[in-house]
Amino acid sequence: MSRSLDWAALNARSPLLAALPGPARRLARQVELAKGARLFTSGDQPAAMYFVLSGEVHLVRHGRNGAGIVLQRAREGCLAEASLDHAAYHCDAVATAPSRVLALPMEPFRAALADEIFRARWMAHLARELRRVRTQAERMSLKSAQDRILHYIALEGEDGVLRLTRSRKDWAADLGLTHEALYRTLARMARSGRIRLDGPLIALAD
Fold it and tell me: Angle at Cα 93 formed by Cα 64 and Cα 110, nearest 5°?
């Protein structure tokens, strides 16, 4: 196994990595990315499956007008799972903060799927991602900022209380809002008694 990787810590943080067979582990490596660095670009042949350990990496596709559309925001976990059976990437992977990424070479990763336990955990991971994407699509279909905020608290919070583990600016991006719109809406909801704000805690009113 690679001396630079602490597999005991990786096993504890991810059931998927915990089940990764030895041959794939031995070929894994860690990639350090500065803010703004690209992990891969559109058109590259997928050489590895990536797992974000820290920081944040976005999948970005550029339209004809040059504007970027964010397809995935990975803060911890797998990135670009669909690349497993694609001949080339259709987007760029860009670090939006200093990041550490685990690179699992593609062929050993594909071979690892022959392992029953690892294959079951990979399928469970894909099922969770599908539910997350569907939830995000449902949230983005809501017209008002307030409805998106309430939807997020209800589904991502616990007993009507959401604890933000990142900045509100980052949360605004997840909601498809500008951070100014998010701040204004939160302030208005607090004044009207719909929510209570207490630092990183946002709670639905009783």
Answer: 120
- Cα(135)–Cα(149) distance, integer angstroms: 13
What span, in angstroms and rounded, lies between the C-alpha atoms of 183 and 121? 39
Q: In this predicted structure, what is the pLDDT of residue 2?
A: 43
pLDDT of residue 3: 46
pLDDT of residue 133: 86
- In the chain the first and final C-alpha atoms are separated, in Å, by 52
Question: In sequence order, what are the residues at sequence separation of 6 or more whose Cβ sits closer than 8 angstroms to the Cβ of residue 70?
Answer: 58, 59, 60, 173
What is the residue-wise DSSP string for 47-64? -EEEEEEES-EEEEEE-T
| pLDDT < 70 positions in the chain | 1-3, 63-67
Q: In which element (H, E) is residue 74 found?
A: strand 68-74
Q: What contacts 24+ positions apart, CB below 8 Å, involve 137-146?
A: 139/175, 139/176, 140/176, 145/175, 145/177, 145/181, 145/182, 145/185, 146/185, 146/188, 146/189, 146/194
Confirm whether pTM is higher than 0.70. yes
Q: Give CA–CA dist 129/20, Å, rounded.
A: 19
Query: Which amino acid would we find at residue 205?
Result: A
Provide the CA 144 distance to its chain's centre, in angstroms: 24
